[in-house]
Design goal:
- The complex is a heterodimer of chains A (246) and B (55).
- With 246 residues, chain A is mainly α.
- Chain A has a domain of 165 residues.
- Chain A is 71% helix and 0% strand.
- Chain A is built from 8 helices and no strands.
- The N terminus of chain A is likely disordered.
- By secondary structure, chain B is an all-alpha fold.
- Chain B starts with 5 loop residues before the first helix and ends in a 6-residue tail after the last helix.
- The model of chain B has no long low-confidence stretch (mean pLDDT 87).
- Classes of the chains: A mainly alpha (246), B mainly alpha (55).
- At the A-B interface, helix 2, helix 3, helix 4 and helix 8 of A face helix 1 of B.
Chain lengths: 246, 55
């Protein structure tokens, strides 16, 4: 006698993509720590670069860029999957930006002599973090799904307009934050070993973002289904109330 | 001379691991709770549709 196939809830519990992404990030960090040379002027603190810069690239450009694109497309097409993508990307983007805002001051203290300075790059990044934190709070405050999706799409698009200013802020204003050393019109100003580690970190953090986005999107889909099922059978649910997708 | 500031580098790596690891754990926990609630909801729905004589 054969056992019945496990239900879907048990089948998809192991997230292979997230596992691969975590291993890729861990492998890259081992390379950064043990097999990448220490920068002569900054010392070991320069290795924070391999977390700080890729997290900033993925959080600000990819995650919040995706929030804006999915939000704009939602306003056009009104497809709830786009709202789910935007909400998931915003949450993951806030996590990446949190890492940027924590590792930046830890790097700044030994190099600049201060944890924080209110220069354009740092202040705008903090402001962007608050905008997307507000985006998540806004989603939690509105019960009507279509109103929530519409308002948050507008905020998501407007928030992403800050990203080009953040990138250009080091050119437009006098700041303590250094100018880009990789993402610039001329060739990168890094030795080849450091550049290879940086690109590996960029790739692995991008993979981590994709894996986290996929996991968060799946969670959003389950939560949406719960809300739909509850709406379809309100009398039979008793005390089992589903939280709406935020 | 190269400065010795490895404490800052270790602190940054630990902080990043805590934030990313914490978020992954929160995703796993939320997904598990949501799937459990979905199963309970479906069981409750099936129970309510079952005729009284069969229940």
């Amino acid at each position: 006698m054969t056992a019945p196939p496990p239900p879907a809830a048990h089948r998809d519990r192991f997230d292979w993509l997230l596992t691969v992404a975590v291993l890729a990030v861990a492998g890259t960090m081992v390379r950064a720590i043990a097999f990448t040379p220490i920068e002569a002027n900054q010392g070991a603190a320069q290795k924070i670069f391999y977390i700080h810069a890729p997290s900033a690239f993925v959080g600000l450009y990819i995650a919040f860029g995706l929030v804006a694109v999915a939000g704009a497309l939602y306003l056009w097409l009104r497809d709830e999957r786009l709202d789910r993508i935007a909400a998931s990307s915003a949450e993951v983007g806030v996590v990446f930006t949190t890492v940027v805002l924590i590792t930046g001051p830890i790097w700044g203290k030994p190099i600049w002599g201060t944890w924080w300075t209110w220069d354009a790059r740092l202040t705008l990044t903090l402001f962007l973090w608050f905008v997307y934190l507000g985006y998540l709070i806004l989603r939690g405050a509105i019960d009507d799904a279509s109103v929530r999706a519409r308002y948050s799409a507008v905020l998501g698009v407007l928030g992403a307009l800050l990203v080009p200013f953040i990138h250009l802020s080091v050119y437009l204003f006098r700041t303590l934050h250094p100018m880009p050393i990789v993402l610039k019109p001329s060739s990168p100003s890094l030795p080849p070993e450091m550049l290879t580690t940086f690109f590996l970190a960029l790739a692995s953090f991008t993979l981590l973002f994709v894996a986290l986005l996929r996991a968060r999107y799946r969670l959003a889909t389950v939560l949406d289904a719960l809300v739909d099922e509850e709406a379809a059978e309100p009398s039979s649910m008793g005390t089992l109330r589903a939280e709406p997708l935020r | 001379m190269t400065p010795d500031n490895s404490d800052y580098f270790v602190a940054a790596y630990v902080a990043a691991a805590v934030v990313y690891g914490g978020y992954i754990v929160s995703l796993v926990v939320r997904a598990r709770r949501a799937r459990g609630r979905q199963q309970r909801q479906r069981s409750a729905g099936e129970l309510s549709r079952t005729p009284r004589s069969e229940a």
